């Protein structure tokens, strides 16, 4: 494994995952896939189907319910579409190694406080599997693929904590860029 590649890609992976998280587990495809995302932001809480997000991602078409929610949340559908489709390169084997390392566990713990299973149990494993499964087909990970591969019928996203999480991971990635991986 090329150490320079890891220094560049791991911080890029962390930032990409965080950026993708701002708007919205281990190597095998999940038996069940997520059907809904429950997004909580301030006093707003809405259950959005993965199918609606997939349609937005693929075609740009916004369902009436998603359009209403995005309007209440003061979010632009095209911006959300961009985050859903933003790819980053990730070899699934390398990704698995990184996410199973101490630093990867830390990142999964931090992300898991904001994006989690309804019960918050087995969350790191769910995130790890969804991310790695997303990279298996084409060595790319996109948020929409992570959502589609999430191995529980529902996942929750706490929008109120996203900026805090972004700042934590940004600090971690700055530190990791200096470490020999």
TrEMBL record:
One GO term describing the cellular component: outer membrane-bounded periplasmic space
Domain (DUF1400) ranges: 33-158
Residues in the signal sequence: 1-26
Keyword Signal: yes
One Pfam family here: DUF1400
Entry protein name: Sll1507 protein
Highest taxon above the source species: Bacteria
Residue intervals passing through the bilayer: none
InterPro entries assigned: DUF1400 (IPR010802)
Keywords tagged on the record: Signal
């Amino acid at each position: 494994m090329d150490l320079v590649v890891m220094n560049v890609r791991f911080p890029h992976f962390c930032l990409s995952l965080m950026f993708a998280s701002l708007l919205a587990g281990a190597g095998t495809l999940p038996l069940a896939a997520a059907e809904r995302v429950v997004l909580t932001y301030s006093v707003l809480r809405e259950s959005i189907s993965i199918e609606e997000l997939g349609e937005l991602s693929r075609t740009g078409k916004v369902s009436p319910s998603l359009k209403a929610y995005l309007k209440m949340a003061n979010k632009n559908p095209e911006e959300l579409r961009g985050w859903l489709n933003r790819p980053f390169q990730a070899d699934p084997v390398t990704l698995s190694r990184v996410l199973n390392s101490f630093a990867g566990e830390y990142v999964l713990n931090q992300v898991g406080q904001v994006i989690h299973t309804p019960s918050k149990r087995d969350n790191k494993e769910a995130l790890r599997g969804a991310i790695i499964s997303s990279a298996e087909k084409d060595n790319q990970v996109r948020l929409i693929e992570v959502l589609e591969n999430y191995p529980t019928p529902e996942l929750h996203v706490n929008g109120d904590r996203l900026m805090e999480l972004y700042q934590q991971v940004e600090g971690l990635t700055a530190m990791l860029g200096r470490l020999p991986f």
